[in-house]
């Protein structure tokens, strides 16, 4: 037997997001998650920039022109993930804000 949790979810949504439709609540929750992810990726990127005292593109050139140690190569992949994540989350946030009608730049 399958339990229908929709009434509980609807009640919580209306309590936590008064005045918003379920679609708006869902979009708001997605926006909040994308913003948290953006902060996580920005923090990672900043930590690598401080650690290596250079920007990602400079670091990338150095890595591609050398035979880096395993840990440095792993940092390269993690830093690339952070840079890509920043771009992806920025686009996601913009798309969600446009959908919600709150097209604000960060």
What's the short version?
By secondary structure, the protein is an all-alpha fold. The chain contains 4 helices and no strands.
Question: Can you characterise this structure?
Answer:
This protein has one domain. Helices cover 77% and strands 0% of the residues. It is built from four helices and no strands. The chain has helices at 6-16, 22-52, 56-64, 70-100.
**What is the residue-averaged pLDDT?**
93
Order of helices and strands: HHHH
Q: Main β-sheet, in a few words?
A: none
Secondary-structure content class: mainly alpha
Question: How many runs of DSSP E, i.e. beta strands?
Answer: 0
> What's the oligomerization state?
single chain
Q: Rough shape?
A: elongated
User: β content, as a range?
Assistant: under 5%
Helix content: over 70%
First and last CA, distance? 46 Å
Q: What is the radius of gyration?
A: 20 Å
Our count of domains comes out at 1
Number of helical segments?
4
Task: Give the low-confidence spans.
Answer: none
């Amino acid at each position: 037997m399958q339990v229908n949790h929709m009434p509980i979810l609807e009640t919580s949504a209306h309590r936590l997001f008064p005045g918003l439709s379920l679609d708006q609540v869902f979009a708001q929750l997605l926006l909040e998650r994308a913003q948290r992810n953006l902060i996580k990726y920005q923090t990672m990127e900043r930590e690598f920039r401080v650690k290596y005292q250079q920007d990602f593109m400079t670091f990338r050139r150095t890595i591609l022109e050398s035979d880096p140690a395993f840990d440095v190569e792993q940092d390269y992949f993690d830093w690339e993930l952070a840079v890509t994540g920043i771009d992806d989350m920025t686009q996601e946030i913009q798309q969600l804000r446009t959908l919600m009608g709150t097209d604000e730049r960060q």
